[in-house]
């Protein structure tokens, strides 16, 4: 009988995930955490969400969080707002309308571009076209397959031997679509731009581009649930996936990660339990000329440096911050977009087991940064496609500075 019930539960679960989640009349509120009591409340909701979703984690008093409130919790949310004196400002009245605008078919062209968000197969087909178009410069990379059997594909761009290398990581968190779009736009610029500064970095570094490092999760955001974050491994009988940016084998589970399989920040059963992070790390470890690692996330407009488990300083913290500060100042020049810079644990929240911590802590790569791209929460993860190119343009401006200043410090 128990086996029958288990099989029925699995069958029902499979049937549920086959349908595309909708967020009609889901509201997004910006909440200022003003007291320890409010923080405890929000952390309790995060642990037992019952339909609520946090777009950023409640970690300390004095910060703001974005909370997605489903229609069936409106009454409950109204009660706790009054009971706990929560200062909550309505940010989005209907999340589904925002998602529909982001994915409207009229934006997607026959040829690959940056006026819309594209799925994994389209991104990979475009990478293959670059290999065909630039055979002496672009080489294909396939480091293995995901849990569900999708390839994890990238390309290497190299104009000459003897260069130091730059690694570009996108879409490790599935719902952060602009991260992958930014990585592909920068790749295209390195191949096509005539700007002297772009040509200088394009031709004097080896580049490794992996725009979709969590292909199962990214596909799931297109087919089933736009708000999905994790991988798609079977983490428990009812829950799938681990957070691939809590799964790396450097200070694993040392804060800001969950041992609960259904949590968005579930770190996995063990370091590198996820085949995606295991294969990615194995490949990165083979690069003996790596001088710069850039990971791309959204949202918050931050340039983050290791580490996530501690506020202790990097060995080259002062230089890393000085370079990054010049980079975000340059980023601001084009459109006025303001970024902040800092250690992960200080600037955003404690978050152990991330890729940049492993790249820095284990491989000792000189310059390591994680971008939290646009915006500050108006659209959050559902950034309109019209902002892809401006986001990528200003980001490339800052990457140029990171490499120029890194060279001045002797890192390349």
UniProtKB/TrEMBL annotation:
Which Pfam families does its entry note?
Peptidase_M14, Propep_M14
Q: Which SUPFAM superfamilies match?
A: Protease propeptides/inhibitors, Zn-dependent exopeptidases
Plastid: present as a keyword of the record? no
Q: Sorted alphabetically, which PROSITE patterns does this protein's record hold?
A: CARBOXYPEPT_ZN_1, CARBOXYPEPT_ZN_2, PEPTIDASE_M14
Location comes to: Secreted
Supply the InterPro entries for this chain: CARBOXYPEPT_ZN_1 (IPR057246), CARBOXYPEPT_ZN_2 (IPR057247), M14A-like_propep (IPR036990), M14A_act_pep (IPR003146), Peptidase_M14 (IPR000834)
Which residue range or ranges hold the Peptidase M14 domain? 116-406
Where does the signal sequence lie? 1-18
Instruction: Output the Gene Ontology terms for molecular function.
Output: metallocarboxypeptidase activity; zinc ion binding
Name of the protein in its database record: Zinc carboxypeptidase A 1
> Which organism does this sequence originate in?
Anopheles merus (Mosquito)
Tell me the lineage of the source organism.
Answer: Eukaryota, Metazoa, Ecdysozoa, Arthropoda, Hexapoda
């Amino acid at each position: 009988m128990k086996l029958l019930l288990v099989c029925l539960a699995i069958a029902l679960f499979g049937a549920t995930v086959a349908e595309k989640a909708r967020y009609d009349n889901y509201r997004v509120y910006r909440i200022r955490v003003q007291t320890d009591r409010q923080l405890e409340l929000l952390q309790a909701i995060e642990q037992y969400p019952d339909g609520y979703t946090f777009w950023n984690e409640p970690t300390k008093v004095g910060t703001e969080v974005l909370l997605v409130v489903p229609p069936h919790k409106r009454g409950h949310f109204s009660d706790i707002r009054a009971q706990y004196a929560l200062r909550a400002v309505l940010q989005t009245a209907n999340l589904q309308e925002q998602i529909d605008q982001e994915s409207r078919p009229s934006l997607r062209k026959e040829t690959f571009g940056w006026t819309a968000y594209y799925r994994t197969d389209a991104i990979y087909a475009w990478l293959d076209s670059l290999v065909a178009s630039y055979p002496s410069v672009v080489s294909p990379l396939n480091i293995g397959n995901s849990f569900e059997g999708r390839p994890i594909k990238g390309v290497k761009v190299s104009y000459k031997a003897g260069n130091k290398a730059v690694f570009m990581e996108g879409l490790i968190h599935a719902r952060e679509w602009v991260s992958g779009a930014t990585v592909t736009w920068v790749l295209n610029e390195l191949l096509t731009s005539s700007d002297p500064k772009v040509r200088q970095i394009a031709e004097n570094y080896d580049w490794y581009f992996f725009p979709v490092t969590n292909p199962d999760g990214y596909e799931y955001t297109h087919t089933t649930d736009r708000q999905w974050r994790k991988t798609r491994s079977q983490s428990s009988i009812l829950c799938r996936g681990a957070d691939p940016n809590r799964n790396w084998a450097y200070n694993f589970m040392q804060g800001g990660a969950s041992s609960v399989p259904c949590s968005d920040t579930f770190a996995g059963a063990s370091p590198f339990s996820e085949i995606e992070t295991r294969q990615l790390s194995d490949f990165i470890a083979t690069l003996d000329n790596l001088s710069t690692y850039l990971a791309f996330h959204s949202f918050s407009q931050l340039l983050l440096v290791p580490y996530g488990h501690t506020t202790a300083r990097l060995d080259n913290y002062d230089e890393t911050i000085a370079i990054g500060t010049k980079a975000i100042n340059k980023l601001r020049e084009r459109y006025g977009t303001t970024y902040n810079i800092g250690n992960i644990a200080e600037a955003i929240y404690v978050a152990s087991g991330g890729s940049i911590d492993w790249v820095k802590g284990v491989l000792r790569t000189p310059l390591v940064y994680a971008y939290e791209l646009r915006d500050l929460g108006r659209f959050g993860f559902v950034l309109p496609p019209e902002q892809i190119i401006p986001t990528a343009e200003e980001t490339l401006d800052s990457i140029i500075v990171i490499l120029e200043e890194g060279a001045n410090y002797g890192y390349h």
